[in-house]
C-alpha cells in the first residue's frame, strides 16, 4: 500500500515537471512580441542585466513584467481568469475595474517618485535649452478619475490628480499648464471616454481642445462648425482585451469633420509616405479601430495645412493626441507630431530646424507616469 502511494506521488511530480517544462519550452520557442494590438501598448522586453539594476531590484521587477507580457496565449488566460473572477463576484481583473453602466476603468498605479523626478528634470532641461519656444503641458486625467462615480463600491481608482499636481508645481511658471480636469468633470454626463478603451472619445478631445484654445490664444471652433459622423459602433478597446471582461457592449467612434473645407498633407516622415487625410478608414475593419486616427502611432508625422495662421506647433504626445490633433489644423500652418516611444531624434534640434513657435506636451496621466520615453526630451533614455 505504501509503495502504491509513493508511486502515485512520484507520478504526479513527474507530470508536474513535464507540464512545467513544456510550458517553458513553448515560451522559449514563441517569438517575442514588441506590441500588443489587443491592449494597445508596448510589451516588456528582456531587460538588460547590470549589477546596479540587480541590487536596486529593478532587474527583478522588469524580468517579472517580461515573463508576464510574453507568456504564451496571454489573451486566452486573461479571459479565462476574468470569467472565473466574475463568477466569484469580483469586479477587478488585471488592473481594470468592471464599473457601473458598462464602463471598464483602469486603476491608476502610483509611480516611483525617483522616476517622476527624472521626467520633471527632462522637461526642465529641454525648457532651459529652448527659452524662446513657448511651451504648454496637458496631462489628461483618465476615466478612473473623472468618472469615479462609475467605480464599483469600495473600489479606489488611485490618486492621479495628486501626482499631476506634483508635476505642475515642479515645472517653471513659463511652461503653461493646461488643466482640462474641470472641463471634463463638468461634462462627465456626456460620452467623453470610451467604455471599453483607455482613450477619451472625440467628444472628450473636443472639450479639451476648446480649453487649449483659451490658453494658446486662438479662437476654438464650436460643435456646430462640424459634421459629427459615427463611423463604427463595433469598437472593443484595450481595456476589453486587458481585463478579459467580455460581457460588455461595444463602443462607437465619431469623427468631427469641419463643415468649412480645408486642405492638408499628412507626411509620415520616417516611412516617407504622405496622405491628404488624417483618417485611415480601412482600419475600421481591424481590431484596434482607434487607429482610424492617423493610422496609429508613428515616430514623426508632419501636418501641413492651408491655414492662414502662420504659427508652427510641435506636439510631443501619446495616443490621446491622435483624436485631438484634427481640431488644431485650422489654427497652425504646420504641426510636427513626435511620439517619443518611436522617435530617437533630437527634439530640440527638430524644433529649431523647423522654426517652431510653440510646443505642446500632451499625454494621458497613466502613460506619462508609466512610460519612460518622455525622458528622451531632455536627452535621457537614448
UniProtKB/TrEMBL annotation:
It comes from Brevibacillus reuszeri. Keywords: Membrane, Transmembrane, Transmembrane helix. InterPro entries: DHHW (IPR025945). The chain crosses the membrane at residues 7-29. This is Membrane protein. It holds the Pfam family DHHW. It comes from the Bacteria.
